[in-house]
Amino acid sequence: MKKATSAGGIIVKKEGDKYYLLLLYYSEYKDLGFLKGHVKEGETIEEDAIREMNEETGLQNISIINKIGSLIRESVEDNGETVLKTIHMYLMESQDFNHGDKAEEKYGWYEYDEAIERMAFKEEAEFLRKHKEAMTKQADNMN
């Protein structure tokens, strides 16, 4: 099976005693997914993650806090080919929440546990489950 590499980011915010994740709503799956995309030639994984976050949300002044980890899952490319995709995910922040025009589908804030239940891919749900403590602890440190 052909391989592919993607990178993306998650922004976590805390309101009251609840944590929220900025995620993409995939209308084709009627569920949630990560803000991510393919690494382009000549681009580092980190540069790709920031570019994808900007393209998909319109957010500016995005910075990486740290790498959360990676996951591997099957994915169907635009040409219909199934690939084994490695997805590198980063915890990010943006001081500028003036969302610009975006080319992607809807994105929004989803409560952490609801997000786990609504992820379109089981591997992504498991990734959120596995990294919940680390990501929420980081959010506590930022607020």
Helix/strand layout:
Elements: E1 3-10, E2 12-15, E3 18-26, E4 31-33, E5 35-38, H1 45-57, E6 60-76, E7 82-96, E8 107-111, H2 112-118, H3 122-142
Parallel strand pairs: 1-7
Antiparallel strand pairs: 1-5, 2-3, 3-4, 3-8, 6-7
Helix pairs in contact: 2-3
Protein name: Nudix hydrolase domain-containing protein
Pfam family, one: NUDIX
Domain Nudix hydrolase: 1-132
Provide the descriptors you would attach to this structure in a database record.
143 residues, alpha+beta, Nucleoside Triphosphate Pyrophosphohydrolase, four-stranded mixed β-sheet, four-stranded antiparallel β-sheet, 8 strands, 29% helix, globular
Describe the structure in your own words:
This protein is an alpha+beta fold and 143 residues long. The chain has one domain (3-142): Alpha-Beta Complex (Nucleoside Triphosphate Pyrophosphohydrolase), CATH 3.90.79. Helix content is 29%, strand content 45%. It has helices spanning 45-57, 112-118, 122-142; strands at 3-10, 12-15, 18-26, 31-33, 35-38, 60-76, 82-96, 107-111. The strands form two sheets. The chain has a four-stranded mixed β-sheet. Helix 2 (112-118) runs antiparallel to helix 3 (122-142). The protein is globular. The N and C termini lie far apart (43 Å).
